[in-house]
Amino acid sequence: MKRNIIQTRDGSTTIHIEDWDECYHSRFGAIQEAQHVFIKKGLSLFENETVSILEIGFGTGLNAFITYLEYPKFNQKIDYVGVEAYPVTIEEAKMMNYVAELNAENERAVFDKLHQCNWGEAVILNEDFVFTKRKQFFAAIDDVEKFDLIYFDAFGYDVQPELWTAEIFHIMHKALKNKGVLVTYAARGVIKRNMIEAGFRVEKLEGAPGKREMFRAIK
User: Fold this and answer.
1) Helices assigned H by DSSP within 35-137
2) What pTM was computed for the model?
3) Domains of the chain (ranges, CATH numbers)
């Protein structure tokens, strides 16, 4: 499928898939969405803790990079696993403007390493942040009570409803520790029902800029 780099409304870039008319991030603002959904409504809940994170849809690396920039504010140690079935190319990653837009030129090497490191190998980004990326279909995830927090950033229900089923959320529920949290940009009735069927308690929260609502699910 043909993919193009486009600019979102907050100035940050994303990848647009022409055949689906679907983007990797919100057209209203890629960085704004990541900050709101995954940091403000997810990571910030675990202040002063060691946090094990599973990202469903590593994609452009934006969520992982923002987490790397933000976690010191919460006095955390991070073990981060990003899962992706169809990785972006190194060339596409280099076209993302996140380093500049986040005023993080001194951390450009970290963003590059997220994409250039080997799949399946843990990389120590610093003494408090370990990163691993896994090339894996979401349905094949078999972790058991390993993660405190899941960033669920799959493509939208309209184009890939199979990624939002009760079966997938059962896998997510199983992967989380007790009282673990899943956050996602989505807020759709069928998704909430599937989360509840999988055993989650679901909260509806204010959405990222341009979106009214989002879900946070708790084990």
Assistant:
1) 62-70, 90-94, 98-101, 108-116
2) 0.97
3) 30-218 (3.40.50.150)
